[in-house]
User: What shape does this take?
Amino acid sequence: MDFDAIILGAGGAGLMAAATAGQAGARVLVIDHAEKAGKKILISGGGRCNFTNMGTGPANFLSENPHFAKSALSRYTQWDFLDLVGRHRIAWHEKTLGQLFCDGSARQIVAMLLDECAKGGVEVRLGTSIGEIGHSDGLFRVAGATAPALVVATGGPSIPKMGATGVAYDIARRFGLNVVTPRPALVPFTLGESEILFRQLSGVACPVVVRVGNVSFEEAALFTHKGLSGPAILQISSYWRPGDEISLNVLPRAAEHFRDARSRMPRAHLKAALTEVLPSRLADALAEKIGLATELGNLSNAALDQAAEVLTNLVFHPTGTEGYAKAEVTAGGIDTDELSSKTMEAKKVPGLYAIGEAVDVTGWLGGYNFQWAWSSGVAAGQAIAARRAS
Ligand code: FDA
Assistant: This one.
């Protein structure tokens, strides 16, 4: 037996698990086919890595089992990660909505994780294919190495251009574990020809409340040449299923605003009232859509309320999403029913663990996905150290 654990994937979750287990005395090997560790960390947050969110809690995650993430998130919290960042003297700031970013570069987070791995004597083999996984007599064999524990930390297939693959699901199925159908999440929507009016708005951004069913987010939306993007849209995309319509409220107090505009400038047209509060191209397009070609002073309360209704409930029928090529994460993944929420170990395959994005736990936009990588990584790392000690 060469190692106490082999970890597949040198991303946030894998490195965190490796450092935790290594520092507790376990002999750990990390294998990754990429030439660099933590590639998604390096490109995250526009190169500054939104490494956690101060408001992280189980409600910020999607999963078939919304309770699954609770244990790991509560045992290694955003404050624990912030402590680690502080010990490495990495300067950070809160951008908005509790989202914490490096002041300098995401490279500092990768360097910190590799340093923590080095402290634990972890061996990291990059540019290494996983190949066939052998399993007999309680031992796993991968790429010429042997260990009694194997951790699947290979993430999901979002952004295949960067080397992301769905190998976690192949491994899970090979060991008889169920996989919740993966789908692109935190991803822009595409719109069809019938909604072409909004193609002319490509590049326009504005704050909205976006809704699918009874889920809503209040952030910015961006019209693109293909459809809709921006933080609000990425957030709601994780809850969207093909066929669902989405509703955008671009001016929550539209009715009050119109009445106020009518008393301030009765000779003006609705477009002038819209231009006061919306980007001018959006105001133009919406004035055209509402089509009230008369002075505000001539409009009844009922007419103004009807116009307001258009702004507060702009309905779109996405034809789809921009897919894994543009998705920040993959929702779905290894079924949490197959895993212990305390240790991340597969219930029916002792020694097999799954962590991070490979698992059916998906965070909102805003640092939550990395927090899940850290928390689930620490849970598995501690369990590996404990199984070695026993
Ligand atoms: P991750 O994907 O990071 O690591 C998996 C590792 O496995 C990779 O190193 C990969 O090379 C390796 N691997 C995959 N297939 C393999 C194979 N077949 N053989 C060998 N190795 C293999 N989240 C957040 O909280 N804040 C943010 O700012 C951002 N920003 C962001 C930007 C962009 C552009 C993307 C695409 C994603 C984000 N995210 C994010 C999401 C975040 O990056 C993601 O959830 C975590 O990186 C997941 O960590 P994991 O370690 O689980 O997988």
